[in-house]
Records
---
Amino acid sequence: MRAGVGIGGWEDIRAEVLRRIRVRDWPPGAMIPTEEELATEFGVARATVNRALRELAVAGVLERRRKAGTRVAALPVRKATLDIPVIRQEVEARGQRHSFRLLSQAEAVPPVPVASRLGLGPEQRMIYLETLHLADGQPFVFETRWLNPLVLPAPLPDFATVSANEWLVAHVAYALGDIAFSAAGATPREAAVLGVAEGAALFITERTTWTAEAPITAVRLAHAPGYRVQTLV
Amino acid sequence: MRAGVGIGGWEDIRAEVLRRIRVRDWPPGAMIPTEEELATEFGVARATVNRALRELAVAGVLERRRKAGTRVAALPVRKATLDIPVIRQEVEARGQRHSFRLLSQAEAVPPVPVASRLGLGPEQRMIYLETLHLADGQPFVFETRWLNPLVLPAPLPDFATVSANEWLVAHVAYALGDIAFSAAGATPREAAVLGVAEGAALFITERTTWTAEAPITAVRLAHAPGYRVQTLV
DNA sequence: TCGGTTAATATGTGCAGACATAATAACCTC
DNA sequence: GAGGTTATTATGTCTGCACATATTAACCGA
C-alpha cells in the first residue's frame, strides 16, 4: 500500500468500479475499459486493477473473457457465500450452550436412496447414528448419519461422548462433499425427537462427503422450527 | 505460466498444499511453512505461493495471520458458495419452459414485519405484487414482493408482462442485500396457488435489497415441494 | 516480576516488466 | 463470397523486488 495515502489499493479500485456499475455509468451488459486503461486512469499498476476486477468477476458482478474484454453482468448470478460451521460452533455463536445425546447406534445396510447417493453396492454395511443436538437444553437439530466403516481409522471413539462430526474432521482425510438444503414435513420419528407436530415444516440440510476414492459419510440434519440460513450479498 | 512446463502455477501449488493437508502431512491445527520456504521448495516466487494460500484461506481450509503464520483450520468452517440466479434462468437450467402470471397488484402499507425488515416508517405505502412462476406450466414458485415506489424510475412497466425481478436488475441501482432460507408450512393462500395441502412443508427464500440509502424491495419466494438448493464444497 | 517499549517477522499489498493463452479480427486464397 | 490461416489484443499469470502492517517475541527499567 502506498505510504500514508488512503486510496489506490485494489479494494478502492473495486469499490469505485462497483460504484460506477451501481450508478449506471456502466449499465448491465456494457463493456468497461481495459485493465490498461483503468490502470492509467487510477494511476496504479495493471496487476492492481486485475486483482479488483477478478474479485468482482468471482462475485458474479463482472464477466471477463480474454481478448473479448470485461462487461457488466446483464443478469447478475449473485453468488452467496454461506458458512457451514460445525453444529457446536453454530449453537455457541448464538450465545447458547451446546450439548448432544446419542439416541441410537447400529450397523446396517443403508436404504437405497442413501446407498445410491454414496455410490455403494446394495450389500455394503455401514454404521448408523442418531444424535440429537441441544441448544440450552432445547432440541436444536436431529442428526441421522451413515458412516462408512471401511475408511474410518481404528479405534472408533464412543460417539455418545465425542461428536461424530468433530471426530471425523480431526481423524479422516476428506476430499469432496456436497450440501443440499430443502424443506420436509417432520416424520413421526423427527416429530417425537424434536417435540413438534408430525408433518411440521422442517428445514433439512443434507451433506455427503468422500475421500478421493470412497464415501465417508452421509448426514441428514432436521432443524427445529424457526431455523434460518442467512447471508449478506 | 512458465513456458512448456505444466507445473508451477498457483493452482498446482494450491493442489499440492491441499493434498498435504488431506493426507495429514499437515494435520488440522498444524502450522505450515512460511510463504518464503514454500516458494523456495516449489521453485516459484513468493507471490505465487501467496495466491495459492490466499485462495485456500478464503475457502476456509487455512487460517492466516500476519507474523503468526499459516495453520490448517482445526474445525474448517466450510464456505459453500450458492448461485442465486434469476428464476427464469433457474427454470431454464432445468430444461423447462418458464412462464409467470401476475396474480395481484396493489398499493398498500406493508405489514409490520416487512416494514421493519426494510427499515420503513409505519405509514410508508408500497407496491405489492403476487406472482406465480411456472415451469412447463406447473407451479414452481409463488413470489410475493413489496416494492418501494420512491426509488423506482418512471415509467413503471406492466408487471403482468415484465418480470419484476428482471426489470429491477435492469433499471435500479442496487447496492446491498441479504438472503435467508427457511422452511414453513404453506399458508392457505400459498396452498391454493401452488396446489398443495395447507400446512405442507415449503422451502422459503427471502431477499431484501437496498440502494445506499433506501430499501428497494422485499421478496418472499415459496417454492413448490421438492425444491432443493444444492452446492459442491 | 510486572508492564511497557522496541525489534523481529510472516503476511498483505504494491510496482514494472514479461510471456502465455484464448478469442476475435483481419487477411488471403480459391 | 466461403473457408481457412495469421495477426492482434485483453486477460491470466509469473517473477523479483519493495514496503506496509499486524503481531509476536525480546528486551529493559522500575
---
Amino acid sequence: MNAPTPPEAAFSIAAVERDTGLAKDTLRVWERRYGFPAPARDANGERLYPPEQVDKLRLIRRLLDHGRRPAGIVGASAEELAAMLDSCLCPQAAATAAGREDGLLQLVRLHRSVELNAALRQALMKQGLQRFVADTVAPLAAAVGEAWMRGEVEVPEEHLFTEQVQNVLRSAIGAHATPGGRPRVLLTTFPEEDHVLGLLMAEAMLVPEGAACLSLGTRTPLADIRSAAVGGGFDIVGLSFSIAYPARQAIDGLLELRALMPDEITIWAGGAAVRDKQKRLPGIEVVGGLDETLAALQAWRAVHPQSM
Amino acid sequence: MNAPTPPEAAFSIAAVERDTGLAKDTLRVWERRYGFPAPARDANGERLYPPEQVDKLRLIRRLLDHGRRPAGIVGASAEELAAMLDSCLCPQAAATAAGREDGLLQLVRLHRSVELNAALRQALMKQGLQRFVADTVAPLAAAVGEAWMRGEVEVPEEHLFTEQVQNVLRSAIGAHATPGGRPRVLLTTFPEEDHVLGLLMAEAMLVPEGAACLSLGTRTPLADIRSAAVGGGFDIVGLSFSIAYPARQAIDGLLELRALMPDEITIWAGGAAVRDKQKRLPGIEVVGGLDETLAALQAWRAVHPQSM
DNA sequence: GACACCGTTTGTCCTGGACAAACTAATCTT
DNA sequence: AAGATTAGTTTGTCCAGGACAAACGGTGTC
C-alpha cells in the first residue's frame, strides 16, 4: 500500500514526486502534453521511471526554479538542456569563482566531510560570524547549487553541506546570543517554504549586532506568525524566501500578513523571490541581501531610539 | 495556478495535504468511503476544508501513527476521538510525568522561548550531554507530542521546541567532536523520513564516547547511503525511524541496505518503528533506546579491538 | 517606465474505478 | 503456547482524461 520504494532500478511516481518535488499530477500531465517523461509500465499499468529520466526531471526542476518555462525545456533533449544550463550559469560566474577561490567547494564531498567542517570553522574564526556568512557561506551555497547543476556534486552532498553549515552556524549563534537585546526579531518562513539556511544566515547577521533573534523554523502558517509575534512581544518579523518560491505567492502572503499584524511590528522579507519587489510591497521592508540586513537594522534603530 | 493559500477561513486540498501529511488521494477516498472529511465546495467545485475539520484530520493522523486503523476513527465523532485519545495516552503517562516534573513542558510556549532555551542549556550543563539527551530531551519530546494531542500545545510550539533542541544539541555536539575517533558512524534516515531529532540524539550519545559521527541529515536514498558509507570509510551506519514510519517499509529497506552494503560495515537501526523487530532483521543491530546506543557501541568495540 | 489588455501556457483539481499491499482473524503446525 | 498458513477485509495509491483559473508574455496606451 505504501509503495515509495522502487522495485529494481526504476522509480514509482510517488518516489519521483519525493525526489524531484514535482507533483504526481504534473508528471502525468507533462507526459500527456510534452511526451516527457516517458516512463515504462509495470504489470499493473503503473509508471516506472528510469533513473536517467529522474535525473533529467531534477535538472528541469531547477531550471524552472531559475525562471525558465516548461514549454522550452520539458521536451528538450539532453544537449539542448546543457546549452541552457550554460546561459543560466554564466551570469552567476562570480559566485562560482568566489566559492572555488578558497577551495571550499572541493570539500563538499561525502568523503571529505571532516575537512569541510574544519575549514568552515576556520573560516568562521578568521572572518568573524558576519563576514563568514555573507562572504563565505552564501556564495558557497550558490556555488554548490551550480555545481550540482553541472553534475559535479550529488544531491546527498548538497544535504551534507547544509547539515555542516547548520552545525557551525547554530553553534556560533548560540555563543553570541543576547537574550535581552533589542530589537526582538522573529524569524521563520511561509508554510510552503522549507529552506532553513536563509533563516540561519539572517540570524547570524543579526545576533552579533545585539538583536534578540528567535527562529520558529520553517513552515509557519500566517496566523501562527501573527500570534507568535504579538504574544512574544517582537519588534520585527523576518521572512525568508528561496529562489524556488513563487514570487506572486510571496507577495500575496506578505501583504496578507501585513494586514493581519499590528502596524508597530516591522516586517522584513529577504531572499531571491522578493528581491526587486519592494515597489509591490508597501509596508514591508525588502532586504535584498545579507549585508542589507545590517542597514535595515540600523534604520530600525534610528526610528526606535527608546528601545535601545 | 499555485493555489496553496486558503481563501478565507477554509483550506484547499493542497493546504490540507501540507498541514496534515495526508495525501490528496487519501483525503478524497476517505470522503467517499467514510463521509469524513466533508468539505464545502467553492464556485468551481473545489473542496474547501473548514479549520475544525483540518484540526480533526491532524488528530486522526496522529492516532493512525500510534497504531489505530482508519475504520474506527475516520468516521468517529469528536467525543469518541477524545476517548480513544485517553486510552492511547495513559500507557505513556510516565513520559508525561517526567516531562512535567522539571517544568520544562510549561516552557514550550511561543512567548517563553527564552526561558526554554535557558532551561535546556542549564539542564545540559547539570546533567552532561548523554543524560540530558536520554533523561530530559527524549521524554520531553514525547511529552510535547502528547500535550499536542491534548490540545495543550500548538503545532508551531512543537516546531519551536524542535528548533531550540537543535540549537542546543548541535552546539554541544560541535564542542565534543572528536574527528579522528573510532568507530566512524554515519547517521541518516531513509528518504520518506524527515524527523531530525532522532539523529541528533543518537549523535549526542555517541560523540562523548569518542566516536566520530557524521550526519547526512534526513532523506538519503539507499544507494547514496551505501556510497557514502563505503567512500567515507565508515564502520557503522545508523538509521533513525520515527513512530510515523511504516514498520514494514523500515524492515524491507533495512534488509535491502544490508544486502547492498559490505559485511564489515555494521548497521544500527533505532526508533519506535523498529523496536521489537530484531527477529525480523538478521544482520542488523536494533537499538531499542538511547541508552542501548552505549551498549551497542561497547559491543562493537569488543569485536573490533584493533580499531581503537 | 507603469499599466491594462488578451491569447497562451500551465499546474492543480475533479470523478470514479481498479487493484495490490497491509492488516485481522481464524486455523493448522510444531 | 508460540509460530506459520490461509482466507477475508481494509486501505492507500494509481490511473485516465476532462476542465478551468491563475500565471505568463507580448502588445499597445497613457
